[in-house]
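We give its fold:
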Amino acid sequence: MKLIENMQPDKWVKNNMKHYSKLFLGIILSLIVGCKGYDHPDFPKVPVNFYIYPNDVSYYDLMYHGGHMYFTGGVNGIVVYRLGDWEFTAFDRACPNDWDKSDAYVAMESSGIILKCNRCGSTYNILDGGKVSGTSKYPLKQYFTKYDGMRLRIHS
C-alpha cells in the first residue's frame, strides 16, 4: 500500500491505464474472432420465414420454458425451443455432419437440452447449437427469432 500512497493519483492512473487498455483490447479482439458465426462451407442457404403463435393451445409445448416443437422448413425441418418468457431459439434439424442425407436429422433427447443426430450420433446443445460430442465439425444451423409477446417469427 505504501507504493500507492506515495504515488500521485494522476501517475497511478497513467501507469494502470496501459494495463487496462491492453485488457480491453484483448477482450474486444477475442469477441470479434470468437463470434464469427456459422461457417459451414457446404450447408445450403435455404430461405426460412414463418410465424407461429406460442400462446395458442396448438403450440402447447412452447408455452413453458424448456419446451420445444418441430416444424417443416429449412433443410431437414426446424426445432424451436423456448429459452424464457421472451426468448426463443431455432435450429435446422439437418445434422451439419450429414446434411445432404435426408435421413440424418437431430432430435431432442430426454434431457430436454441435447439434440442428437440419429445417423452419426453427434450431440448438440439446444441453447446455442454448439457441438457437445461426436464427429461433426460444425454447430447446428441457427435461424433468427423475434417474439413480440403474441407472434414468433422464425427467419433466415
Q: What stands out?
A: Confidence is low (pLDDT under 50) at residues 22-36. Strands lie at 49-52, 68-71, 78-82, 88-92, 106-108, 114-117, 123-125, 131-133, 142-147, 152-155.
